Amino acid sequence: MAEAMGVNLDTWQGWETGRRPLANVKAGALLDLRRRLPALGADTRLLHLLDPAMDADRVISATIHPENTAQHPLAYWVHTRDTAHMIAWALNGTVPPVLGRRATPGRRGPVAHAPVLPTLDRSMFFSRLRDTAESSLRAGDDGLLLHRQALYLCSYDRAPEAATWTNHALHTRRDLIAARGWTPHWATARSTAVALARLGDRQPLLDFIDRGMADDDAAETANLNYWAYWLGSIREPQPDDGFMRRGPTNWEPVHLLHGLAAGLHQAPAYVDLYVHSLWALLTAHQWLPLADTELADALCAHTVRLLDHGGISPRSRRELSSVHYVLRENRA
After folding, report:
1. Do 288 and 254 form a contact (C-beta atoms < 8 A)?
2. Residue 38 is inside which H or E element, if any?
3. Helix (H) and strand (E) counts for the chain?
4. pTM
5. Which segments of the chain does DSSP mark as H helices, in order?
6. CA distances from 18 to 11, 121, 275 (A)
7. pLDDT of the chain along its 332 residues, tens only?
8. 319 and which of 8, 75, 106, 279 could share a cystine (Cβ 3.0–4.6 Å)?
């Protein structure tokens, strides 16, 4: 590979092991790498993961080794689902869904099964991330984005004492969930409710759906815009949460339908949020089932299983019934 790529062996080994971070490569060399790899047989579906992988490295490095004069990356950039999955892979060994069904080719010699941080680095990451979450509150509105994102990533720490801290920190922000409709703190309230659901407390998310989204056009638009960014329908990097309220509005609804349908299978902790978001998307774009009939049929069958199984809120049951009706009628 080193010979084929026109680099020396030490450079290539450094990229593979992480000893030489890919983010430190010159822009021209990185572009050349992206163009050469497909020509050598690389899976083009995986090449787009280089960016979120480098972003994950950047977030982890900036947290473990902070520089006094530098802003934390989470203070001026809204991270994406792919980046969050890469961070979780490094912290907990949780394989990103996009890689979970792929066979890993065997290699000679001792090779790590995942890019998991050493125990000491992992402990340092979460400790400093908690410090970052607390200190960002003192910056007022300027620290909202950093606080929201740092606190959300803190919920990835599975240690019992860490879960206690995170629960307490999240519950101190629970008053935001009580607000009706769109507010300047809407994104923080949503993130808080989702993080609590991750930790097993489902009620704040149900409350947020009832109060923070339902029957409020601005909040429903913000929710779909956020999903579009999180799931990759909006590809432009966003520097703050303002895009949720103001757009962009040129994201592809079919792509978002695919993402929400997949999440309904993969993330049972957030089933009520996925159901509400699917309901809102199909209410706004009732033609969507006709755009991908195979997906519509599979989603229709899955909604029947969810309705039969139970375990969802009364609101979710009503909305899921509406989703099923739209899917069925458009396929009739």
Report:
1. yes
2. helix 27-39
3. 19, 0
4. 0.89
5. 2-5, 9-17, 27-39, 44-47, 50-64, 81-92, 97-100, 119-137, 144-154, 160-171, 186-198, 203-208, 217-230, 243-246, 253-266, 271-284, 288-291, 293-309, 314-331
6. 10, 15, 39
7. 899 988 999 999 998 888 888 888 899 989 999 999 999 999 888 898 999 999 999 999 999 999 877 899 999 999 999 999 999 999 999 899 888 777 666 666 666 777 889 999 999 999 999 999 999 988 888 899 999 999 999 999 988 889 899 989 988 888 889 899 999 899 999 999 999 998 889 999 999 999 999 999 999 999 999 999 999 999 899 999 999 988 667 799 999 999 999 988 888 889 999 999 999 999 999 999 999 999 999 999 999 999 998 788 999 999 999 999 999 887 65
8. 279
CA 169 to chain centre: 20
* Token pair listed for 223: 């929710």
Could you give phi then psi for residue 292, rounded to 5 degrees? -150, 90
Look up residue 184 and give its DSSP letter: T
Six-digit token pair at 312? 């969802």
Amino acid at residue number 122 = R
> Tokens 């902070």 appear where?
66
